[in-house]
Amino acid sequence: MFGIGFWEVVLILVVALIVLGPDRFPELARSAGKLIRELKSLGKELRDEKDHDASGHE
């Protein structure tokens, strides 16, 4: 996952929880999850389109 390990992710989450507090952290986590899903979807769409274009020009 982006070249970072499990403990780095844990450290980032702990720091975010301390900085944001327990009230805003869940909102940030939901937003980050949504952004990651959208980026993965966009990447898949671009790969599919590239594959479709490549197969159409044979």
Description:
This protein has one helix and no strands. With 58 residues, the protein is an all-alpha fold. It has one domain. The two termini are 35 Å apart.
Query: What is the number of E strands?
Result: 0
What global shape is seen? elongated
The description of the largest β-sheet is:
none
The tally of helices reads: 1
> Alpha-carbon distance between the termini?
35 Å
Order of helices and strands: H
Structural class: mainly alpha
Low-confidence stretches: none
Topology:
Blueprint: H1 6-56
Q: What labels would you give this structure?
A:
58 residues, mainly alpha, elongated
Q: Can you give me a brief rundown of this structure?
A:
The chain has one domain. The protein is built from 1 helix and no strands. It has one helix spanning 6-56.
